[in-house]
Amino acid sequence: MTTKREFLKTLAAGGAIAGFPAIVRAQQMEDVTYLLPAPATLPAFIPWVLAQQRGYYAREGLKVTFQSGKGGVDVAKQVGAGNAPIGGAIGDTPIIARAQGIPVKAVAVLGGGALTNLVVHEGQGVNGPADLKGKMVTVLSYQDTTYFSLLGMLASANLKKTDLDIQAAGPTGIWQQFAQGKAAAFAGPVDWALNAKGAGANPKIFRGDSFFPSMAQAILASDEMIQKRPELIGKLVRATLRGLADVLKEGKGVVPDYVAGAPGFKGKEAFIEDVVALYTEFTYKGQKVLGAMDPERLGKVQKFYVGEGIVPKEVPVAELYTNRFVS
To answer: In angstroms, rounded to a whole number, what is the distance separating the alpha carbons of residues 57 and 62?
Structure first.
């Protein structure tokens, strides 16, 4: 009869002892679908990929699978319907979702800046929204927060959408038309500015939140999940914010691990280093408590959305977010 000690010796001799606890842990892992507004391998999702690649989700006992939705509002609908326990969008998204009766909240915001910034051509006379009158500007779509953020930027200069030519150009056309000189500016994330630069443009980036208080990416959860599975939401938020914290602390030092998790960027490490630097400067920096929503800022965005008719009415700001998982 083989004793327990002899069994362990046999495993060790075969090199299996190191893997044995991992097998046990793997059997205890909870499968979780994390719904993102676009493919997880896009540079905008570096903190998420790091959390996966560095094992932060696994350490929380979670086996996370990223799936792609069709933008932030679609993610909110899927999360609100219970088709995924958690999702990614923009901090502004719950304003739109709640107005449509979708019961979701932002449970964390990844940065103190904004995802949507204003990108213009260096040296061509555009130094802010006021200089866009009569010019062509591209956005992702007319239903996307890049468009709503642009409207907010224009309002800071007393301009309306009819004062210029705003074109919905899609995820590649938005920066390609800019790079080709057809558009004087575009509203979007900083990695698209780098795409335009790679195509021959000389872009200059203005902070979007210096004109309009739009927000960075957010983590969304439904009211039901927050009530019934707060420990799961807490684990997902904690692990994702660890990925963000690594970016803020290490800078380009995270690039090798990110590329390991997003191998399509192998050989493009210099590009990703630039992405990390720009996201850190324009989007990720600026929070006193990492992940915390600023309710005053959220309230200002909601008032603008209502004033522009983007949503029909205000809801209590407290229904749009919770900071319980980040404090």
So the answer is: 5
Q: Are residues 103 and 239 in the same domain?
A: yes
Q: Which amino acid is at 112?
A: G
Using the structure block, give the residue that is written with the tokens 């200069």. Answer: 157
State pLDDT tens for residues 127-166.
999 999 999 999 999 988 889 999 999 999 999 999 999 9
Parent domain of 134: 117-210
pTM of the model: 0.88
Our CA angle for 59, 61, 63, nearest 5°, is: 100
Question: What is the spatial distance between Cα 113 and Cα 115, in angstroms, rounded to a whole number?
Answer: 7
Whether 192 and 186 have beta carbons less than 8 Å apart is answered as: yes
On whether residue 41 sits in a domain, the answer given is yes
Would you tell me how many other CB atoms lie within 10 Å of the CB of residue 55? 11
Looking at the domain assignment, is residue 123 inside a domain? yes
Give the whole-angstrom CA distance, residue 284 versus residue 267.
25
